[in-house]
Amino acid sequence: MSRQLRISVQSPASEAAIAAVDEGLSEYNVAVGPLSDVRPLHVIAADESGNVGGGAIGRTWGLCCELQQLWVADVQRGKGLGTELMRSFEAEAKRRGCQLVYLDTFTFQAPALYGALGYTEVLRTEGFANGVAKHTMQKKLDASPR
After folding, report:
1. Distance in angstroms (rounded) separating the CA atoms of residues 69 and 82
2. Which of 138, 62, 137, 117 is nearest to 93 (CA)?
């Protein structure tokens, strides 16, 4: 016997409702996909005291690597740290056997940096406030060692 469900817009939804959706999706994904093969990839730039000045956060799965976050502290910007973080991130992805890195970035973030590093835009989603677009970009990693 199925229960009758009522659909409602909730803004914000309860933490219990959000947790139920997250847990349900996670259970489904684990049952269907080999998510146990997903590995975190973290590249962090810190000084000798452990103060973090930037980092590249993502994950690898099979032949693909996803960059989820790239951040460089204000005082470090424009000095090449973002490029160094990305090169280290890509090198580790390649070491793990990845052939493709992909990411999302907004217009006000770093699409120019990624373009200079060889990423190509494969999707642009427009319609955000103030003319902002979301750029989905990817880069094929070559087979030769760097």
Report:
1. 11
2. 62
How many Å from the N-terminal Cα to the C-terminal Cα in the chain?
60
**Residue 40: in which H helix or E strand, if any?**
strand 39-46
The pTM is what? 0.85
**Residues of the chain whose pLDDT is less than 50?**
145-146
Sketch out the chain's domains with CATH numbers.
38-140 (3.40.630.30)
- DSSP secondary structure code for residue 54 in this structure: E
Return all residues near 5 (Cβ < 8 A) that are at least 6 apart: none
Contact 59, 41 (CB under 8 A): yes
